[in-house]
Amino acid sequence: MPEIIIIGGTDSSGGAGLTRDTAAAHSIGCEVLPVVTAVTVQTNGALIATELMPEEVVRLQIKAAFDSGEPCSVKIGMLGSASIASVVVEALADHQLPVVIDPVFKSSSNGCLMRGSLPDQLLQRATIITPNLPEAATLSNLPQAATPLEIRRQAEAILALGPQAVLVKDGHGDAPIVSDRLFQASGHDVFCHKRLSFGRRGTGCHLATAIACHLTMQRDLTNACELAIAQVHKWLRKVQEN
Q1: In what residue span(s) does the Pyridoxamine kinase/Phosphomethylpyrimidine kinase domain sit (predicted)?
Q2: 153-167: average pLDDT
Q3: CA-closest candidate to residue 128, choices 3, 212, 34
């Protein structure tokens, strides 16, 4: 099976983080080389505690992942601090492979999961970054977008920071149709689907990991995003049925 490196935090509730990443990757046919940046204590309703890993431990985990396999892509989730993010940048410097960043700043319960900001060097390394509406506002330093034009302006501001593409997720919107918008230098794509009447933690983790898996399988970025979005909705519907 193709291998991908997943860099992120653990979630004691099992709803998000590396647990959800691994389940998503396995469902697509990829193996995971996990790199733990933080251990979080969470329930479905609250972030109780967070313990960041020592920076050297993070660096050694990434080195071990490259030494023990042949990863084809990297997915980055929770980093926990700007200093850990800088360690990740340095550890990936000599490796040219797709990098998908899910910019985790807060938990679903609004607990803080990131101290400081993502360094420019990390954003410049990204093949794609996948912010939701609040995260796009944070990255662009603009008020949360409410219209397609405002979303475009935020995406353009984020693209100016260095990533090759930005997928602005509409899960935090309130329209009956969800419009996830992919912005690249080559153009703008919109993936529309009916808004589900329920949600679940870990959807952002699942989506970014699925994109990384499809990039590993040599799919182009637009197709990788389209397939990943469809798979997240398939998973959510299956969860509801069970």
Answers
A1: 11-237
A2: 97
A3: 212
Q: Is residue 33 within 8 Å of residue 216, measured between CB atoms?
A: no
Judge contact between 75 and 21, C-beta under 8 A: yes
> Alpha-carbon distance 204 to 81, whole Å?
19
Task: Return the sign of the alpha-carbon dihedral for residues 70, 73, 75, 80.
Answer: positive
DSSP notation for 145-212: P-SHHHHHHHHHHHHTTS-SEEEEB-TT--SSEEEEEEEETTEEEEEEEEPPS---TTHHHHHHHHHH
Q: Which positions ≥6 away from 94 have C-beta within 8 Å?
A: none
Identify how many contiguous H helices and E strands the chain contains and give both numbers. Answer: 8, 11
Give the start-to-end residue ranges of the domains of the chain: 3-241
Instruction: Please choose, from the candidates 211, 206, 241, the residue with its C-alpha nearest in 3D space to the C-alpha of residue 225.
Output: 211
CB atoms within 10 A of CB 70: 9
- CA triplet 216, 177, 222: central angle to 5 degrees? 20
What average pLDDT does this structure show over 14-18? Answer: 90
Element (H, E) at 7: strand 3-11
Computed over every residue of the chain, the mean pLDDT equals: 92
| Weakest mean pLDDT among 6-10, 28-32, 181-185, 190-194 | 190-194
Which of helix, strand or coil describes residue 54? coil
| C-beta of residue 215 within 8 angstroms of C-beta of residue 187 | no
Instruction: Quote the tokens at residue 84.
Output: 């850990």
CATH superfamily of 3-241: Ribokinase (3.40.1190.20)
